[in-house]
Specification:
Blueprint lengths: L7 H13 L3 H14 L4 H13 L3 H14 L5 H23 L3 H14 L3 H18 L6 H14 L10 H33 L1 E5 L6 E5 L3
Antiparallel strand pairs: 1-2
Helix pairs in contact: 1-2, 1-3, 2-3, 3-4, 3-5, 4-5, 4-6, 5-6, 6-7, 6-8, 7-8
Length: about 220
Amino acid sequence: MSPRPKNSSEWVKEAVRYYKAECYTECLEACEEAIQLNPDCARAYHGKGLALTQRGRYEDALVAYQKVFQLLPENAQLGVALRKQLQVDITELLELLYMSGDYGRAGKAYRKAIKVDNQYESLYIDKTKELIDKARKLSTPETRDLALYAYRNVLHFNPNPNNDLIATSEIEAFKREEEAKIRKFEREEEAKARFDNIGGSIIHIPDSTNGRNRRVRRGS
């Protein structure tokens, strides 16, 4: 059994070993030990972010990465190298969230990443354009329902897209059609409920005159 690490650097090395072995829970615990001993250990927060990403805790990972940016020196060699790696790791995290199809969650992550480093704003715009293009391609009579769903994804991902990306009139047209669809569904549900209530108040009794059942409302 190996001796227990004595300082934050040793705990970081332990975390690296766990990460390479794909033992992400143990890696996270080792990073937390390092942070307890040295709250300013940027590498420990970086390892924590990596482990949290692998466990699907993307928002928590972004918080850890944000802490790394705060701790990194601007010009020191370690700071420059780790900053570059961190940018790669955040980009991969954002792509994982985007590809999951949970566009509301992904959009929030992109906006949080922009606060960490504004270089992610261009990525956010590119992804918004991608979703808009998908919605427009589906805007045909045959695939209108899919188009509505796609426009909904646009607004989940980016609630306030720039006019350079999509005209306000296009968004408003989608919202009107979406509201009309909801109202139509509600009317259909109300009509169905009324029909079910009427059907429940009717009974069938034999009719001796022609051998068929007669439908009679209860209570009549």
